[in-house]
Amino acid sequence: MQTEITCAPPQGSPLAPILSSLTGLVVAMEAHTAPSPAATAFHQAIRRKGDELAQIGGIEVLDYALVFIREQASSPAKAGHREAVLTEAWTGLAGWRV
């Protein structure tokens, strides 16, 4: 099995600060479980960041962000959890998978 490595966007790219913030939000959400006020706030912020990414580059950028954030996880379980968090938060965004 080949491991794919997704590079971070170059500094100065409009994606860089959004992706950095999004990664921080997803990591912070790992410490919270729904339903809780903190989890709800993180969920809403993750959705807003997804909307920003979609406006910049559509589904391709959302897919890139998902893969990048999964690859930053320290374990397959965390990677799967991150994907679930992003998929749930981004449901309903234009072009996002259902």
Structural account:
- The protein is an all-alpha fold.
- It has one domain.
- 66% of the residues lie in helices and 0% in strands.
- It is built from three helices and no strands.
- The protein has helices spanning 15-29, 37-71, 76-90.
- The radius of gyration is 13 Å and the shape is globular.
- The mean pLDDT is 89.
Low-confidence stretches: none
Major beta sheet summary: none
Over all CA atoms, what is the radius of gyration? 13 Å
What structural class should be given to the helix and strand makeup?
Answer: mainly alpha
Question: How much beta, percentage-wise?
Answer: under 5%
Number of separate helices? 3
Total number of beta strands:
0
- Distance from first to last alpha carbon: 27 Å
Oligomer: single chain
Shape: globular
- Helicity range: 55-70%
Structural domain count: 1
Mean pLDDT: 89
Secondary-structure element pattern, one letter each: HHH
